[in-house]
Predict the 3D structure of the following.
Amino acid sequence: MNKMILASIFAALAILGAVIFFTPDSVKAIHFYDEKIRSILFSGLLTVGSFLLSLKVFIVVKFKENVFDSESYKSKLAERRKINPNLSHYGPVRNLSKVLFIAITSSLCASASQVTIGLIPEWWALLICVGLAAFAGVMLLLVLLLIRTILKDWLDHMEV
């Protein structure tokens, strides 16, 4: 999981690098950010963070009950433990819970930064706000990938 977080940070830095590279005039960029982007990022990130926060417990508990407590998953885990005895029964749920927490926190922090740091008409403030928003977006994609993986496992277990 730490590798995924590190990859998310690098992806956010790459997005930030693209913003720096493709912005020829910092004054116009600051004005464009202030007029067009800041309010959209604030409302979008606040919505995503709040939505994930309200669903976090539901998602984790339902996956635990429907996937990881099923007999088919337990039997497949027993087979996999013959190869790797360090596999955790609820490891994927723990990872999803941790990544959801980081995604929620990063979304809410990025949203708050839009109406605090984002009000400062400086180039560095724009980079901080866009960087935080990029990290929150990458974390959201990571959550979606983890949920997709767990759903795929669940559907595979349902067919058995």
About this structure: The longest helix spans residues 26-68. The mean pLDDT is 86. The two ends are 28 Å apart (CA to CA).
